[in-house]
Amino acid sequence: MSNEKEPLTPANDAASDRGDEAEAAPPTPEERVVALEAELADVHDRLLRALAETENTRRRAQRERADAEKYSVAKFAGDMLSVADNLRRALDSLPESEARDDRTRSLLDGVAATERELLAAFERHSLKRIDPKGQKFDHNFHQAVFEMENTGRPAGTVVEVLQPGYVLHDRLLRPAMVGVAKGGALAGDPDGTDDGA
Q1: pTM score
Q2: DSSP β-ladder status, 165-168 and 127-130
């Protein structure tokens, strides 16, 4: 007998592999089914989560697109409010009854027509004016600048509008700046309906 080691041949290599396999027994069909079912359940769960995430992303994008379309003019509309305010100030600065000549009356008519056209454009784009005189104060749409006593109106009633507010669709663009009645109605006017006139 020689001390030479036997070279590995494919037959010897296969025999050694069979020895390793014998040590680690292949899974039984039942074990394999259980493993595949667990893997299938995991894949199914990940699929459902991915579908739900995709649907949520689609809905969020759709909502954001609708909001962008609806409120895209908000900044521009906000900038145009001062134009509307200035037109109103120009009209209030000289009542039509005090216009002495035709040129002044024509100028007032032109400013009034410009204001009407601007307000009509606001309406077409769902920008609505808030002029709450005589209404109950609502902190969602009004900003109280001062309180007035002895107005003959119930407490919390808007008695003066310093600057009208505006709403774009259902979103407040600018609150109305108002004066609010403080206290109750005047004595002798229990329902607060007398204008004090």
Answers
A1: 0.61
A2: antiparallel
The angle at the Cα of 177, spanning 174 to 182, to the nearest 5 degrees, equals: 145
- Ordered by start, the domain boundaries in the chain are 129-192
E strand or H helix that includes residue 167: strand 165-168
**Per-residue pLDDT at 186:** 44
168-172 long-range Cβ contacts below 8 angstroms, 24+ apart: 168/71, 168/73, 168/74, 168/77, 168/125, 168/126, 168/127, 169/70, 169/71, 169/126, 171/71, 171/74, 172/140, 172/141
CATH 2.30.22.10 fits 129-192, yes or no: yes
Rounded to an integer, what distance in angstroms lies between the CA atom of residue 137 and that of residue 133? Answer: 9
Q: Is the pLDDT of residue 164 over 90?
A: yes
Distances (CA, A) of 124 to 77, 118, 119, 120, 169: 12, 10, 9, 6, 11
Q: Three-state SS for 179? A: strand
pLDDT digits (tens, 9 = 90+) for 90-149: 998 988 778 788 888 899 999 999 999 999 999 999 999 999 998 999 999 999 999 988
Min mean pLDDT across 49-58, 100-109, 172-181, 186-195 is at 186-195
Tokens of 21: 């396999």
More reliable by pLDDT, 3 or 68 = 68
DSSP 8-class letter at 151: -
